[in-house]
Amino acid sequence: MNQIPKLKDFEAPEGYFEQLPDQIIDQLKPAKSFSWIKYAAAAVLLGLGITWQLDVFQAEPEPLTLEEEVNLYIDSHTWTDEDVLSLAENPDAVLDEILSEELPAEEDLWNEDEQNWF
C-alpha cells in the first residue's frame, strides 16, 4: 500500500459549473437544416392526397350493356331470377328463349339410326 502514489485532489476549473448549462444548451441547438425540403415533402404529400381523393388517375369505366348490367346484379345476388322475370314484359318468352339456348334442338337429341328405327 505504501507503494501506491497519493493522488492530488481534483479541482474543477474556475467558473466551470457556471458555464456548463450554456455549453449544454449550445450543443442541443439543432443544426441549420434545409427547411425547404420539409415544405416540398409536405406539398408532394398534399398533392398526392388531393389526387387520390379526386380520383384523378382513375380511368372512366366503359359503359355496360343492359344485359351485362343485369348479369352483374344477378351475380352479386342483388336481384334474383324472379326479380328479373318480373321486370320482363313477357316472362314466358324469356323463359322459352333461355330453354332454347340451353337445351339442344329436338333433332339433335337423336342420331339418324335412332330416328329411323322403324
What does this molecule look like?
The chain has a domain of 26 residues. It has 118 residues and is mainly α. The termini are far apart. The chain has seven helices and no strands. The radius of gyration is 44 Å and the shape is rod-shaped. Helix content is 59%, strand content 0%.
Query: Helix and strand string, N-terminal first?
Result: HHHHHHH
* Spatial gap, N to C terminus: 134 Å
So what's the oligomer here? single chain
Tell me the helix content.
55-70%
How would you sum up the major sheet? Answer: none
What amount of the residues lies in strands? Answer: under 5%
Summed up, the helix count is 7
Uncertain spans: none
Mean pLDDT: 79
Query: What structural class do you assign from the helix and strand content?
Result: mainly alpha
Please compute the radius of gyration using only Cα atoms: 44 Å
- Find the count of extended strands (DSSP E, 2+ residues): 0
Inertia-based shape = rod-shaped
Secondary-structure map:
Blueprint: H1 16-28, H2 35-54, H3 66-75, H4 81-87, H5 91-102, H6 106-109, H7 112-115
Features:
single chain; mainly alpha; 118 residues; 0% strand; rod-shaped
Q: What's this entry about, in short?
A:
The chain is mostly helical and 118 residues long.
